[in-house]
Design a protein that fits this description.
Length: about 230
């Protein structure tokens, strides 16, 4: 099946994942993570992208962000990818590609879904068995969203701000989201949509994305179409 083009809409949150080629290591030291974070902050500002949540793993990254125009995220990821590959190749005296082709992304409906993606991203190191709690992992936005750590990179989404009226109450409400077990059906939806590039949301949201972009947001049926019976 042909790969569908990515869909970007100004003002609509987007979940992004980029992996190392053949899942190879992309971050070999804290200096590498810090360099990537530095350029991510630089290019979000340059291209008008608001970053809400992220996690940098050894061989891939997850980002949740909203762009102010339809091209901002693509421009950010292209610039960031090229800059970081130059740095990584020079530092480790290597050449060639680092990333696994183009990044994957999907649009995210705000109601009922965006906070699940916040949590999905920041729980990544826990699911990988690297830490027991997201608070123990340095290279994610959890300490910012849950504990008030200051960051010039993080810009909270309106759904996050709506959790409570004050910063302290908001952080407590956010931590409470992590106290219950993850919903397996939601996990499956998040994984399938980021893999396929389809929008993450309810039927109405998918129909709205289709109407705005002219690109389908439903997986086609597998196999040959059935012949019509007389």
């Amino acid at each position: 099946m042909a790969r569908l083009p990515r869909v970007h809409l100004a003002g609509v949150p987007e979940h992004i994942i980029q992996r190392g080629n053949n899942r190879q290591v992309c971050f070999a030291s804290d200096e590498d993570f810090a360099a990537y974070a530095h350029w991510l902050k630089e290019y979000t500002a340059e291209f008008g992208v608001h970053m809400h949540a992220w996690v940098f793993m050894t061989n891939h990254v997850h980002l949740l962000c909203t762009a102010s125009d339809n091209s901002g995220i693509s421009l950010m990821m292209q610039s960031l990818g090229r800059q970081y590959v130059r740095y990584f190749n020079q530092r480790y005296r290597r050449s060639g590609t680092l990333w696994e082709g183009r990044f994957k992304s999907c649009l995210v409906q705000e109601a009922h879904y965006i906070m699940a993606v916040y949590r999905y991203i920041e729980m990544n190191p826990v699911r990988a068995g690297m830490v027991a709690s997201p608070a123990e992992y340095q290279w994610s936005s959890y300490a910012i969203n849950a504990m008030g750590k200051q960051s010039a990179l993080c810009q909270p989404h309106a759904s996050y701000l709506a959790l409570a009226d004050t910063e302290c109450e908001r952080q407590q409400s956010y931590r409470d989201l992590f106290r219950h077990e993850e919903n397996e059906a939601m996990l499956a939806d998040i994984r399938s949509t980021i893999k396929s590039g389809m929008a993450l949301g309810n039927e109405r949201f998918k129909q709205e994305v289709e109407a705005l972009t002219g690109r389908r947001q439903h997986m086609g049926q597998r196999g040959r179409p059935k012949l019509k019976q007389d």
